[in-house]
Amino acid sequence: MAANREEDYRALAIIRAFEERCMTLKGAGEIPGSIHLCDGQEAIPVGACRALEARDAVTVTYRGHGWAIARGLSLVDLFAELMGRDSHLNGGRAGSPFFSSPEHGFLGENSIVAGGMPMAVGAALAAAHDGSGSVSIVSVGDGALNQGAAHEALNFAAVFALPLVLVVENNFYSEMTPIRDMVRIERLAERAPGYGIPGVTIDGNDIAVVEAAVRDAVARARSGGGPSMIEANTERLVGHYSGDLQAYRPSGEVASAREREPLTRIRRSAADEGPGAVARLDAVDREVAATIESAVEAARAIPYPAPESAREHMYA
Amino acid sequence: MAANREEDYRALAIIRAFEERCMTLKGAGEIPGSIHLCDGQEAIPVGACRALEARDAVTVTYRGHGWAIARGLSLVDLFAELMGRDSHLNGGRAGSPFFSSPEHGFLGENSIVAGGMPMAVGAALAAAHDGSGSVSIVSVGDGALNQGAAHEALNFAAVFALPLVLVVENNFYSEMTPIRDMVRIERLAERAPGYGIPGVTIDGNDIAVVEAAVRDAVARARSGGGPSMIEANTERLVGHYSGDLQAYRPSGEVASAREREPLTRIRRSAADEGPGAVARLDAVDREVAATIESAVEAARAIPYPAPESAREHMYA
Amino acid sequence: MPEAVAELRYIQAVNAAHRWALETYPEALVFGEDVALPNGPFGATKGLREMFGARVFDTPISESAIVGAALGAAMRGRRPIIEIMYGDFIAVAMDQIVNQVANTRYVSRGGWRAPLTIRTQQGNSPGACAQHSQSLEAWFAHTPGLRVGLPSNPRDAYEMLRSAIASDDPTMIMEHRLLYPDAAQVALDGPVEPIGGSRVVRAGTDVTVVTWSRMVGESLKAADTLADRGVSVEVIDLRWLSPLDFAPVAASVHRTGRLVVAHEANLTGGFGAEVAARVADECFWDLDAPIGRVGAPDVRIPASPVLQAVVVPAAGAVVEVVSRILAESNR
Amino acid sequence: MPEAVAELRYIQAVNAAHRWALETYPEALVFGEDVALPNGPFGATKGLREMFGARVFDTPISESAIVGAALGAAMRGRRPIIEIMYGDFIAVAMDQIVNQVANTRYVSRGGWRAPLTIRTQQGNSPGACAQHSQSLEAWFAHTPGLRVGLPSNPRDAYEMLRSAIASDDPTMIMEHRLLYPDAAQVALDGPVEPIGGSRVVRAGTDVTVVTWSRMVGESLKAADTLADRGVSVEVIDLRWLSPLDFAPVAASVHRTGRLVVAHEANLTGGFGAEVAARVADECFWDLDAPIGRVGAPDVRIPASPVLQAVVVPAAGAVVEVVSRILAESNR
Ligand SMILES: Cc1ncc(C[n+]2csc(CCOP(=O)(O)OP(=O)(O)O)c2C)c(N)n1
Ligand SMILES: Cc1ncc(C[n+]2csc(CCOP(=O)(O)OP(=O)(O)O)c2C)c(N)n1
Ligand SMILES: [Mg+2]
Ligand SMILES: [Mg+2]
Prior knowledge:
The complex is a heterotetramer, with 2 copies of chain A and 2 copies of chain C. Chain A is an alpha/beta fold. Chain A is 43% helix and 11% strand. In chain A, the strands form 2 sheets. Chain A has a 6-stranded parallel sheet with strand order 2-1-3-4-8-7, with helices on both faces. Chain A has a two-stranded antiparallel ribbon with strand order 5-6.
């Protein structure tokens, strides 16, 4: 249980540390463009990826750094990709919001809201024909469900009972607009019955809860039970993107969210257990910080892509 | 009641006769392009338009001839428009699937499936700002609900509680494909709760039932209660379009549909009442036939548009 | 080996290419609206469901999902061939084609490939409305990452579709329904050609007409008319807009000194402008006359055939522009 | 009357035009994603919600519904001004723009009008990804029924947006976010200009450079560089692609004998081809050199600034092409 706690903590902390480091690298001008961080939402990718196998497909959004890390992509490549360097990931061509990794079955982030959902349905369609038994999981945000593509994708997957799992990371905001103002339903999972598929709403800040829900959905999908939707409630601890000052958030909202976020929860349970437990988490923090720092250093050692390579890889 | 019966019969028969005449005109080469007829679905536009006011907006599909007639558009103009003549409607520019009439608040047919739904939402949006108290009604087919635009439109209307009424004419086929194979729900109205709006499924072959349902929905919309969905079940007695031989329909399906279609029902009730009632309907048929024939003649008298006019009306 | 040759209509050639693909590639999938049980709105996929079962299936009316599903399936090892019923409907799936499909290979630096084929048919037919009449190839020829082909005859309908399917790049095949009844001898089991390549369909010495799709036939008619007037027209069927096979165009203009580009799409911003611009740069010194273009005037397409007759370009428009160019030239 | 003139940044000029519209037209509506309470992703709509209340509102992330709602509202008497956050996202609303909005007036033979304005911003900025970097104006300039403007400076950002809003035709205003910080003197209460009209932003005698949006500034930089080399460049800011103000282009080419067209969009099929094709036809005998074009090479836009530097065209590319054209000319 204690080991389990540190493992959970490490899995979350490495993502948090990565995101925080991205913010300082952005500030220092080492990462170009705008970046969308998942601080506070880490339990969703961590819990979900624990329920997946190597043969499964993962499709996410511009807020997908946490998924990439939970899926096992290299921290060095991720930092290098975000820095616009010649990373093994996509050679700096994708950047923060659009990278992908075939060898991880990571179909990629996507910076068109809900734009990845039809693609994820396609991965599920492939599974229905290739006998691989793989499942396709796709994560989008709350606001993305209002895109036409989300609707078409869900019905398409339902009609053919494709092995698809949709995780809606409901952080209650779409950029700067509260989702409650953009739908007339209480829970986004209420959209599921309209497609004839199961939908559940869960606490997205609890790794175990997320893992369990995704395991159910993956088992159903793998056994031919078709697609389902998991609404994972969470909260963004930072702005929509690197430059967002969050003037639109009620004062105190972020502070209280910090009371509910996954890392705080684990630290609280450790505190309840005693100083030894807390010390073990502090140790994890130190390890994580060191891991991140060496990854940044290694990424900095990767050169920028050769300008003349810009015209390569357009066609077969 | 008897008067009422003949009135209902006339309203349906004029549409049926129009559609049947279109088919012969098509066969005779007097109507170019393909046409999509509503034989069997007439009770929906007839019932719905009875619940509307002049200030309301009507948006339909390529299968919209019945709506146009029920809304009061001129038979002569309709025939002329379909014939590609210089009709007062759209001068032959729109044709069978895309005509419109500002003076009838008839935003038009649309030959992009669900393409008119966002437009209808816009008419409702205008009403929410112009104090007109008008309502926007839009009709689409069953298959159209699987379009992204349908989803975006419904949620958009729901969010702003716009005065929109969606009538889904469920004729159980989308072109040549059964709707039951293209959704995983029993009733299409099950989509409504996902938008937080009311949805009902009704017998679309009964004028009174349709009128009552639309009256409810219109009253709700006009009083600020927001949008709602009416799934009106019906059956197509003819092909998807003029050239459709319907090989895909189980034998006997159309025949049994003819037992349930609106005109048959009224004739049956007349037969139950007696020969006098039947004779009155026969008289209506004769009137209707005459009306249609003179409309065709009048339409034929309308010239074709001047070729050089083809470049006009592109911009203000 | 003995080459099987059959007399096929354009639409039958499309059907034969599908059959070839499903037989050749176990990973091939065919899907779209009404393509399976109903045998396809135009018959392009006739009989395939019966022959190949679940690999051929009907979809909901959800073009974004259709294109996206093809992309995801292609990324995961399938080889989808999808149908968008009318070119006009592609507009509801533009994001999936441009922002998703076209980016797949390049942005992943070759990590992913998207071997998928998007088939559609476009253009006007008498009485068709404004939402069923557009020619939209210029959108896709302006989208790096896609291949774009427009077969003008049964042989190309078969060969170009096979090339598209065999290719590991996402390819759009834009047919023209008015060509579907055309028949010709088609070699069925010849080698699959790589994507690309134009064809000189008529040799001439006075003016080069570059064209594609339905306007190839119209341009050949125009060439006959002009021949009677003593004008020798060379007609090049461009076949593929991407990759653009420019060398033969340049070589022809070098010989004729005059260029007219003809397409059914609206004139302004049509791909004819690209061909003209390339020639006006790379072949400038070979030109003896202004470059002419034929296309629909910049209006929507009206439904009345009377109006369509003056809006939709045909042989007459080609004759007119070629004649003008000759009149304006310095020979 | 005394003209109010203010020093405004491009984005502030856009904001001022919105304010003007909401004050001038009671039927004006402003909506889009994050435009109201959050004051707009880029601040274009800052303060409007506070000033005008419910006429300015935030929408769901549903671009097809946004465009369609604008169309229906416009048909029923409103004058909507909507924002599509990035030009790339227009792809999810193409059907509503092309098959619905653009057909409204023509197909109804003038029965309906659609006085709506679609604002967006496009192009690349350092580090932006392939889905946030495209320049897609060619799609809309090839769509009869739409008006298309690309303001290159704060004054035009104000004037062209006012022209678009005042117009009874559906108009697309495509801004470039890299220009948002630029500041200039803007006359606020002058008469509203009708849509259309190009502007000679620099007079010259050796070569005409036709350009728009961000490339106007780059072309002016190039003109400075070339002036130092003794080359006199005339720069025309086309401003509107539809209607295309061709006469001044022809007049300029008549004087200079040389044309280069420069845009940020991908070269092949870009609107530069249209301008080149028009000149290669209508001004052929005035030309003393091949027509040059500047545009992004035909690749997707990579995120790494190192790669963007060679893909996204700038002043250097204009200098290069102008120099080549001069070297290849017969004077
Ligand atoms: C089609 C499209 N429209 C708009 C945008 C701009 N945009 C980027 S993120 C975002 C908000 C998405 O909110 P949500 O789906 O809740 O995801 P979150 O950012 O909260 O993770 C918007 C509107 C986009 N990228 N794509
Ligand atoms: C976006 C789009 N996709 C496909 C089509 C081709 N199409 C025309 S009608 C139709 C079937 C529509 O079925 P339904 O919505 O049930 O209406 P019905 O024809 O039964 O009245 C299809 C697929 C289209 N017009 N638009
Ligand atoms: Mg969110
Ligand atoms: Mg139907």
